Amino acid sequence: MATSGRPGEVVTCPACGTRNRVPFSGRGRVRCSNCHADLPWLVEAGDLSFDDAVASRVLVLVDVWAVWCGPCRAIAPVVEQLSRELAGRLKVVKVDADRSPVVSSRHSITAIPTLLLYRDGVEVGRQVGAVPAAQLRSWVESALPGD
After folding, report:
1. Catalytic residue flag (residue 69)
2. Which domains does the chain have, with CATH numbers?
3. Where is each Thioredoxin domain found (predicted)?
């Protein structure tokens, strides 16, 4: 997983195996430099980097979590899987609530996990608490723009 530092994580393209550096921020899709396949886009953000992380034309799923939170750990694999399955259509941003009190306060987060959906830098959806994988997937997919 990428950290809030730049330039970004190196990800191996699932289509051709080329290693690509995935940027922390950007407005468009992240694609392989070799075969141009969409790449999973998952980063960690905090108080200072949150706005840059959610400013994207693709749908952004923000996972506000904490290390000590069991339900957060339970849904983390589902969130990460969605970043792979919906590559090119979804960006995932992980925010540690304990390390990002400004983000938590600004979004009035009182329980975790809290999942936020952002489109063009604006919150468009919210899910509080861990939900089954199928329900989470359906919620995210319902917010994706039609093809």
Report:
1. yes
2. 40-143 (3.40.30.10)
3. 2-145
Closest CA to 112 of 147, 145, 65, 52: 65
pTM: 0.90
DSSP 145: P
- For CA atoms 14, 24, 116, 104, the dihedral sign is positive
Q: Is residue 72 among the annotated active site residues?
A: yes
CB distance 37 to 14 below 8 Å: yes
Burial classification of residue 125, based on how many CB atoms lie within 10 Å of its CB (0-12 exposed, 13-18 middle, 19 or more buried): middle
Tens of pLDDT along the chain (147 residues) come to 333 334 567 888 989 999 998 888 877 889 999 999 999 999 999 999 999 999 988 999 999 999 999 999 999 999 999 999 999 999 999 999 999 999 999 999 999 999 999 998 999 999 999 999 999 999 999 999 875
Residue of 13, 32, 35, 69 with catalytic role: 69
Query: In 10 A of CB 103, how many CB atoms?
Result: 25
At 28, list the tokens. Answer: 């468009």
Residue 138, Cα to own-chain centre: how many angstroms? 16
Q: Which of 13, 16, 32, 72 is catalytic?
A: 72
